[in-house]
Design goal:
This is Golgi apparatus protein 1. By secondary structure, the chain is mainly alpha-helical. It has 64 helices and no strands. It is rod-shaped, with a radius of gyration of 51 Å.
């Protein structure tokens, strides 16, 4: 009997029985809105009237009649009986519906809830019809009114009394609650939240209406015209109309009312992915397989959020796990949706409200607001943006970012056309063309805004993640981190990867080849802009503002930080130092420099540029080819900048660091600057060489590399001009610190002349002519020996003279002298050494001291030979005698200006001072000239004027006499006194002048003690005569004493006899 009543009820609702069209209350409205062929079917009439246009009113009595009819359909046991009969097998399969209490209308609502599981055709048709009836009015949805009554009243979303509002307003009630729900998530103050059970009911209603947009009454009425305009041919069901409307949401022709309704729907999807029918259906199996579990009791739980679903499934895709193509397609659509409209992410609306209102208003469409936020919302406020970027994963497919896609379309078509559309490498290709002619400004901005966030999570670069996940697990222990864990330190994994990327085999475990290539790619991209390096940008924010606020062009910020390395705070200095150290090993990390140097690299350095492991070879090659025609200004400036930066820390020179790191730690532990390290190690090598130690303290491999660094060091300074040479010439006017540096540099250059860039440059041809067989460290000595050759280039000769002047200012700058006189200097000149510090120069005092001892004939043979050479050289050129320069500058200007102005110095200034000895007013200068006279008595070669005048006489009369110790001078004096010998007139005249000068010198500067007297006698040209007189005097005294002794003895005897 129940079945028969159900069938009669069904017929009553269909062609026979009671008809809505027969009711007077609705007859007029029905004739206005409904086609005649529907009048015989109650459900068709009901659907027609409730789907009419919003502005078309129906009579209140008809509205009330429809309400009662729908209420009867859902609650009348007769209709429940129909459901029981039509859906008998389905009810048996669905446990929840089978257990529902009969007679209260719950069975029909339960079937509506589970309609996705209804497979029987007849039952499905029945439930579909009933669904449209149930969803036409929130009061008909089972339990909804009970759960949300208080919230409806509190939020003033509508009346719960029957008949107070028409059929359209009932959809508005649900819309009002949905808007309140999404707004609540976007507000910080949740003092009066929607109750949890009502929240679940709202999301459940949204989920149940997800397949057919007719069921979302507010959206249906808001978008009816837009549906006809954009989605006319889209079949209703399975959420297809929703998706079609979503795709046209930002079209100009889209009505604002529909756009708002669609946005609310999308916001609900972002809170619970099941509100999207197509996404929930397509990814149901994959969610289960990938264990992206759901708690059915908590629809708004984290696992139900769209972002969690996307993160979980994207991680599976990145790891190579199978995710169906249908599900991936749906994910792509919703990732694009989130990227296009920032308002779908409640965290962004909540945390970025001020930025949106202040900077990004009016940019709502096509993802422009989001890019505006990316540009300004960095630092601590970027957490919400970072979460969104992680969810949508634009690195996997650039097309997800519509703003980027549109801005970069022309660049992709030209520069990246060889890459398949949608390939993750498109972004990498765009980065490679950043700051090139092919890049357009808008694309550049959008790209950097996105890369800022991608660079902060290594998983957002799918190629890097795929190639390096094994290495990360093996070397960085990432296997313990959950894919979506917020506890993973930002940037920690990539930092770990790049530390291992440049390890040598001796240093331990390294990255796989594929992973290293990807790490290098990322490093090259990050070098384009400091903002792409998270650690650098975070730690150096203050320093960037302080030192580099005006350096805004590509690559300038990092260069600026490197220029101010000593001024940076310690944390920033460390990270900039580490990056620069990495660049020294692989300069290709500096993509802008490599791009600028492409021409010279192809022409001269292609063999080292193609090697995967750089180890500094490419930069070395670029330095060597700085003066080639292919070298442009940008490349030259970049190479010079890197050379100057390398001087700040020895670690910035990879080969030097690898060869000498242990030696530096052992011998120069507290020194970092490369110049100081090189000087420290060079000084150690020099001292060990001078002391002839058995085993050098600096290792052999370091000594070899040290020589390379010494050769390269000076040209780096001299590139803009003769800067170092200028500093050398103005040494006395420099600050103490700079003076010390220049002196140390000169010390190194004198030890190894090859490091003297100016000398090697000016005398290049002369070295080839005279010194091809000379040892590298003896080049200056060789050039000095050939200085007066007729074939010597005048410029080179001038440079040699400069170096001789430098050497004579301090014995430490003359390594040959230093070695020869290492015993004599402390023995005779210790008092001078005690007066000065190690850092100050001696101004020729020690060499002056040794000259005096040479005249006294008290030096060791090796030291005497070296001092003789210095005396001979300085006798020809007064500038080589620093003490004479110091004390006689004014006298030379007054008495010998013409001689001093001569281009060729042949001893004329010294001769002028000797001749004008009586006219010299300054005592210090007079003393220096007297010393010269004293020195000339010891060796005729020290007196070039006298030696030139007496050259023939020396050959004829003194050829057998060994030079030195005044022997040849004594020979000439004896010849002058011997009337049988006829000397050359010029020689005779000069000798007589010298005798007069020596006599004057003896009067002016008498011997200060017995030793000085003995020295004067021994060095006197009348030495034999003086010695004879002294011997005769001693003999006379002896005889007198003997005679007096005998007389005294005789007197004493006589006294005793008495």
């Amino acid at each position: 009997s129940t079945g028969r009543r159900g069938r009669r009820g069904q017929r009553g609702a269909g062609a026979s029985g009671w008809k809505l069209s027969e009711e007077a209350a609705c007859r007029e409205d029905m004739s206005r809105f409904c086609p005649k062929h529907t009048w015989t079917n109650n459900l068709a009439v009901l659907e027609c009237l409730q789907d009419r246009r919003e502005e078309s009113e129906i009579a209140p009595d008809c509205n009330h009649l429809l309400w009662n009819y729908k209420l009867n359909l859902t609650t009348d046991p007769k209709f429940e009986s129909v459901a029981t009969e039509v859906c008998k097998s389905t009810i048996a399969e669905i446990k929840e519906c089978n257990e529902e209490e009969r007679g209260r209308g719950y069975l029909v609502s339960c079937l509506v809830d589970h309609r996705a599981n209804v497979s029987d055709y007849q039952c499905n048709q029945y439930v579909t019809k009933m669904t449209s009836i149930v969803f036409s009015d929130y009061r008909l949805i089972c339990g909804f009114m009970d759960k949300c009554r208080d919230d409806i009243n509190r939020l003033r979303c509508g009346s719960v009394n029957v008949g107070h509002k028409d059929v359209h307003s009932q959809g508005e009630v649900i819309s009002c609650l949905e808007k309140a729900l999404v707004k609540e998530a976007e507000q910080q103050d949740r003092s009066r939240p929607i109750r949890e059970e009502c929240q679940r009911a709202i999301l459940r209603v949204a989920e149940l209406s997800s397949d057919d947009f007719h069921l979302d009454r507010h959206l249906y009425f808001s978008c009816r015209d837009d549906r006809e305009r954009f989605c006319q041919n889209t079949q209703a069901g399975e959420g297809k109309v929703y998706k079609c409307l979503f795709n046209h949401k930002f079209e100009e022709a889209m009505s604002e009312k529909c756009r708002d309704a669609l946005t609310t729907r999308q916001k609900l999807i972002s809170q619970d992915y099941r509100v999207s029918y197509s996404l929930a259906k397509a990814c149901k199996t994959d969610l289960r397989k990938q264990r992206c579990s759901l708690d059915t009791n908590l629809p708004r739980a984290r696992e139900a959020r769209l972002s969690y679903l996307l993160l979980c499934l994207e991680a599976a895709v990145h790891r190579g796990r199978p995710v169906s193509g249908e599900c991936q397609g749906e994910m792509l659509d919703y990732r694009r949706m989130l990227m296009e409209d920032f308002s779908l992410s409640p965290e962004i609306v909540l945390h970025c409200r001020a930025e949106i209102e202040g900077h990004c208003s009016g940019l709502h469409r096509k993802g422009r607001t989001l890019h505006c936020l990316m540009r300004i919302g960095r630092g601590d406020r970027s957490a919400a943006l970072q979460t969104l970027i992680q969810s949508v994963d634009p690195g996997a497919d650039y097309r997800i970012d519509r703003a980027l896609n549109e801005a970069c379309e022309s660049v992709i078509q030209t520069a990246c056309k060889h890459i398949h559309n949608g390939d993750p490498m498109i972004l990498s290709c765009l980065m490679e063309h950043l700051y090139t002619e092919k890049m357009v400004e808008d694309c550049e901005h959008r790209l950097l805004e996105l890369q800022y966030f991608i660079s902060r999570d290594w998983k957002l670069d799918p190629v890097l993640y795929r190639k390096c996940q094994g290495d990360a697990a093996r070397l960085c222990h990432t296997h313990g981190w959950n894919e979506t864990s917020e506890l993973m330190p930002p940037g920690a994994v990539f930092s770990c990867l790049y530390r291992h990327a440049y390890r040598s085999e001796e240093q331990g475990r390294r990255l796989s080849r594929d992973c290293k290539v990807e790490v290098q790619r990322i490093l090259h991209q990050r070098a384009l802009d400091v903002k792409l390096d998270p650690k650098l940008q975070k730690l150096c924010m203050t320093d960037l503002g302080k030192w580099c606020s005006e350096k805004t062009d590509a690559g300038q910020e990092l260069e600026c930080l490197q220029d101010h390395l000593e001024d940076l705070v310690s944390a920033c200095r460390e990270v900039v130092g580490n990056l620069t150290e990495l660049e020294s090993e692989d300069i290709q990390i500096d993509a802008l420099l490599i791009r600028a140097c492409e021409a010279v690299t192809q022409a001269h350095c292609h063999d080292v540029a193609d090697i995967q492991i750089d180890t500094g070879d490419l930069m070395e090659c670029l330095v060597q080819n700085k003066h080639q025609k292919e070298m442009n200004d940008k490349c030259s400036v970049g190479v010079t900048h890197f050379q100057l930066v390398q001087m700040k820390d020895f670690r910035f020179s990879y080969k030097f660091k690898m060869a000498c790191k242990e030696d530096v730690l052992r011998l120069c532990p507290n020194i970092k600057k490369k110049v100081d390290v090189v000087i420290c190690l060079s000084t150690t090598v020099k001292n060990d060489t001078l002391q002839e130690v058995r085993e050098q303290r600096v290792s052999l491999k370091c000594r070899k590399q040290l020589r390379v660094e010494e050769l390269e060091m000076v040209p780096r300074f001299t590139n803009p001009g003769n800067m170092i040479e200028c500093l050398k010439e103005q040494k006395k006017q420099l600050s103490q610190r700079c003076h010390q540096r220049i002196f140390r540099l000169q010390e190194v250059e004198m030890t190894d002349p090859e490091l003297d860039y100016q000398l090697m440059r000016v005398c290049k041809q002369m070295i080839k002519r005279f010194c091809t067989d000379a040892d590298a460290r003896s080049l200056l000595q060789c050039l000095k020996q050939n200085k007066n050759s007729e074939l010597m280039d005048p410029k080179c000769k001038q440079m040699i003279t400069k170096r001789q002047i430098t050497q004579n200012t301090d014995y430490r700058l003359n390594p040959v002298l230093r070695k020869a006189c290492r015993a004599d200097i402390p023995k005779f000149c210790q008092s001078i050494l005690n007066k000065v510090t190690e850092e100050s120069e001696l101004e020729g005092q020690v060499i002056g001291c040794l000259k005096l001892k040479y005249a006294d004939q008290r030096l060791s043979p090796d030291c005497e030979d070296q001092i003789r050479v210095i005396l001979q050289e300085s006798a020809l050129d007064y500038r080589l005698d620093p003490q004479l320069q110091v004390h006689c500058t004014d006298e030379i200007s007054r008495l010998c200006a013409e001689e001093a102005a001569a281009q060729e110095q042949t001893g004329q200034v010294e001769e002028c001072l000797k001749v004008n000895l009586l006219k010299i007013k300054q005592e210090a200068c007079k003393k220096e000239v007297l010393n010269m006279l004293k020195e000339s008595k010891a060796d005729i070669f020290v007196d070039p004027v006298l030696h030139t005048a007496c050259a023939l006489d020396l050959k004829h009369h003194c050829a057998a006499i060994t030079p030195g110790r005044g022997r040849q001078m004594s020979c000439l004096m004896e010849a002058l006194q011997d009337k049988r010998v006829r000397l050359q007139p010029e020689c005779k005249k000069r000798l007589q002048d010298r005798i007069d000068m020596w006599s004057y010198a003896a009067k002016v500067a008498p011997a200060e003690g017995f030793s000085d007297l003995a020295v004067q006698v021994m060095t006197s040209p009348s030495k034999n005569y003086i010695l004879l007189m002294i011997a005769l005097s001693v003999c006379v005294l002896f005889l007198v004493g003997l005679l007096c002794g005998r007389i005294t003895k005789q007197v004493t005897r006589e006294l005793k006899d008495r």
